[in-house]
Amino acid sequence: MSMLLQESSAMRERLMHLLAGVLPEAWVGTGVVIGMSLLKATAIVLVIQIGMLYATWLERKLIGRMQDRLGPNRIGKFGLLVPFADMIKILTKEDITPRDAHSWVYNLGAILILPPALVGFAVVAFSSTLIAADLSVGLLFFFAIASTAVIPIFMAGWGSRNKFALIGAMRAVAQIVSYEIPQVLSLVGVLLLAGTLSMNQLVGSQGPLPAPGAEGAVLPGVWYIFLQPIAFVIFLLATTAEIERTPFDLPEAESEIIAGYHTEYSGIKFGMFYLALYFATIAAAAVTAMIFLGGWQPPVPAFLIPESGPITDFMYNSGWLWMTIKTVFLVMVFMWFRGTLPRLRADQMMAFCWKILVPLSLANLLVTGLLANLLAPLASPMAYLGAFVVANAILLGITLWAVRRWRERGSSGDFVFEVQPAAAPSGVGGGD
Amino acid sequence: MNEQWAFVAILTLLAISVPLIAIGLAKVLRPKRPGTIKQSTYECGLETVGETWVQFKVQYYLFAIIFVLFDVETVFLYPWAVAYGKLGLFALVEMFIFLGILLVGLVYAWRKGALEWV
């Protein structure tokens, strides 16, 4: 893949020569920038599109197998041409727009749902040199873009002029904004240890291979899933809720609220929501792999890799292979959740977020801050590993004990897990 | 560095044009047979009754407000976390106090019932 980097500088030279003949002198620089960006953007969109098509195939096969059936196997060998059949079907379906739908809000909702999922791929590092835009605020950029996905969802629900679509959209918005909090809070612990928001540097700090342009030692040198297992679990669950997959897919569940905010869409406009879901799944898996599973770092600890030789070269130059394996693994984990877990009720979902995940991520942050301060003088990955594993185990133990005490005490009305009679909540703004 | 942000801008434009191209392509390929009943609002086969844009419950607003609070808190936490290696114990204690104040806010909202789902 370092060949790709050399080829890209060769491509840049040729583009510069090409444009020098066409544009006036002062514009050649801008032209080269725009040209290279267009090439990179097109490459990303095409590759991710193919990835997404086969993610739909994988989902249907995997969930089929989990349900003890085969999944599609008629179209192409093993059903491999199913995504193309799906594409043709969606493109040729009639677009049934409700008569009363608000004209441009309805259409804009369907159009704008896709860009946030795609633009997030700008900061995904497929390999140590294959990152489209190594922004110094890459992590924050990714979550900022993901947050803007809320607006088209609400536009879709409101513009459809359908009571159930509106309720579904409001529930979806409440769910997405609520789960953003544990998602970003759990990452603060990782940031404390890494000291950088740049995605490439974040992956590089998980050792043994430093990112290009890194100064200083590679610390902490272990994958963050080992240093921050609780943060990993919180992040995984919150991300599953963000992309609205089961068990958090109440807003779009067919048996609950017809299809929620995309009830009134058919054909390609519905296809946009479907595409956005899969793009978001792949982006979420890629980002989780980068932050917690060490992205393009090889999966063996540093002391097992010999100093030099063919194995070393293979391990260090196949960043794209490790990244792909980790991303596909996480995508399959998301599909595994879908095939195994039942859906959460809306109140269970919100209580789980605000009453369990947010306090837990704050506690995790405090513990990590304390430990990072104490461990700063030592510079060994093993010390970090040991201390954090112990601290996380203690934190997890305390949390489980606290939840069990909460259930046993039987306090009124605050439960996540019990089936409540429809009692009114006690005075918000009332006489308390 | 400017080049990276230029790339983001171009990717955004491309990403907005992808759905436009797809919808345009579908417009060419699909049949067009509008009908009165087909285009009425879907409610599992029933007729809709009453206002469509219903008044929504205040609970959604409360969740949004609490979200804004914690999001602003996160915005303050991120620069602190990134610069943590270069700051001393003082920064840690200061941030603990900040988080403590917000934790009190969360507990208050919890006890007042603002986190209950209607």
Overview of the molecule:
The complex is a heterodimer of chains A (432) and B (118). Chain A has helices at 2-22, 28-66, 82-91, 103-112, 114-119, 138-147, 150-159, 163-194, 199-204, 224-227, 229-242, 254-257, 268-292, 310-317, 319-340, 346-375, 381-409. Chain A has one domain. Chain A is an all-alpha fold. Chain A has 17 helices and no strands. Mean pLDDT of chain A is 82; it is low at 415-419 and 427-432. With 118 residues, chain B is an all-alpha fold. Chain B has a single domain (2-112), classed as NADH:ubiquinone/plastoquinone oxidoreductase, chain 3 (Methane Monooxygenase Hydroxylase, Chain G, domain 1, Up-down Bundle). Chain B has helices spanning 2-29, 58-82, 89-112. The two termini of chain B are 48 Å apart. The mean pLDDT of chain B is 84. The interface between A and B is large, with 90 and 73 residues.
List keywords for this structure.
heterodimer, A: 432 residues, mainly alpha, 0% strand, globular, disordered C terminus, B: 118 residues, Methane Monooxygenase Hydroxylase, Chain G, domain 1, 3 helices
Give a quick precis of the structure.
The complex is a heterodimer of chains A (432) and B (118). Chain A is mainly alpha-helical and 432 residues long. In chain A, 65% of the residues lie in helices and 0% in strands.
